[in-house]
């Protein structure tokens, strides 16, 4: 009986550790606007609102003004808004940004490697990390009617 319990404990510990390793994290490299590899860990120590978007994404057009507002309102309190573009052609992202300026951190994942690790379920997809770099919330899509709730989540984390 002890052998069975030990075996079950080892198997469950192994499975849980694999799940923890697979969880979305800031330990990923993306590109900056110059095409250089940079780590998302540069934002660790702050509350991070990490958003994945693409030029063809309609709801992304609604999220950009909100992200700009959140960045301006809470940056000094420790919020980092980071939007990662998934277009394989940066010119598409640049055309989008010409119409929808972003006053927050922009990064690029043209091959979709990081997006794949985050297992995106729709666009935009947002991941909220606390100051310790732990994933605490996810959102699929952007709904203006939920904007106040999104903001309240951020405010709560900023107070921790």
From TrEMBL:
Keywords: Signal. GO terms for molecular function: oxidoreductase activity. It holds the Pfam family Redoxin. Residues 1-22 form the signal peptide. Residues 17-159 form the Thioredoxin domain. InterPro entries: Redoxin, Thioredoxin-like_sf, Thioredoxin_domain, Thioredoxin_ResA/DsbE_sf. SUPFAM superfamilies: Thioredoxin-like. PANTHER family: CHROMOSOME UNDETERMINED SCAFFOLD_47, WHOLE GENOME SHOTGUN SEQUENCE (PTHR42852:SF18), THIOL:DISULFIDE INTERCHANGE PROTEIN DSBE (PTHR42852). This is TlpA family protein disulfide reductase. It comes from Shewanella salipaludis.
